[in-house]
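FYI - complex with adenosine-5'-triphosphate, inputs then prediction.
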Amino acid sequence: MGISLQNINKSFKNFDALKNINFSIKQGELVALLGPSGCGKTTLLRIIAGLETASSGKIYFADTDVTQLSAKQRDIGFVFQNYALFRHMNVAENVAFGLKMKPRAIRLSKTEINERVNQLLGLVQLENFAKRYPDQLSGGQRQRVALARALASKPNVLLLDEPFSALDAKVRKDLRRWLRDFHHELNVTSIFVTHDQEEALEVADKIILMNQGQIEQIGTPAEVYKQPKTAFVAHFLGDVNLLHGYIENNTLIIGDFRKDMKEQGNWADQSAIAYVRPHEISIAKTARKNDIQGQVVRIHTAGPTVFLEIAVEGQPKHIDVSVSYRQYEQQQVELGDNIYWQPILVNIFVQDELFEFMI
Ligand SMILES: Nc1ncnc2c1ncn2[C@@H]1O[C@H](COP(=O)(O)OP(=O)(O)OP(=O)(O)O)[C@@H](O)[C@H]1O
């Protein structure tokens, strides 16, 4: 079932927690609500769930206006960060709970409930854990039970609030992959809240990036990462170098680097800051056309990736560059070396407008 939000606002007394939120989600999409602490993600999720009312605006599930409907009437599966399983019930009983609580007229028979529970435990790969109690499970297993329980009544929409944040890094990573595969098998429209950009980039079909109660950008992980619309998005989605340069006669100039920008329109002569990710920089030991010279002042190896810091005249901060270990070995880069480098993908933000180009 698709979801559409129209002009949603939410105020707590004098504080505007959400400002004019608009977006649509397609049936079966897995969407991340991403943003820093306090930006309004949870409030928005709760409004979609019907656990909180918006100050104004409308919410549609498919073509139905659900704005005035309660959480129960909206038919939603909810997963919170802290499992919230019943400790005195075993796994099967936890999953069956919602089904058993339904009014008699619409309740499934005992046999049907057992079948559904078995099917769900198969889906979350916990068939052999039906009789265990929550405190006999790992964090990741508990969260999978919570997911099975949320899905028991075949909800229209699945909402997850920081579902993995209480788990350790390795389990988190496994569960992310698992959620992605599992979701595609299931095809239920799902929204999950996270403040972890890596998680959103890896798991989601679409990311809604929020800041201070507003949407900054909506797009696929590749779009928001490679084509950030604002400086905030560029910063939030990972490490980025701010290269100080200027524009003159429609040419971007950073040290010896020149880039003709006529194709991107007519530019006023002005100083400019170019945003470049560490892996979007090409390095060489001997100068090529358009290269900027620098000196390697730090080398840090992290598994398959090597991080270099390059000191560059005219740049207030060292430039961070990441290369594969293989490339690092081939180039034989050493501390103190002169190095030549140039950006491969640059984003420039001038008065909140974005100009992006490949070089
Ligand atoms: N009941 C409330 N009364 C007053 N202010 C509230 C209430 N609930 C949330 N807020 C405020 O609204 C803003 C958004 O809160 P929200 O919990 O939605 O943020 P968030 O993005 O989910 O943050 P986090 O990642 O830290 O959970 C915050 O500034 C918060 O203090």
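Residues 3-236 form a domain with the Rossmann fold fold (CATH 3.40.50.300). The mean pLDDT is 89.
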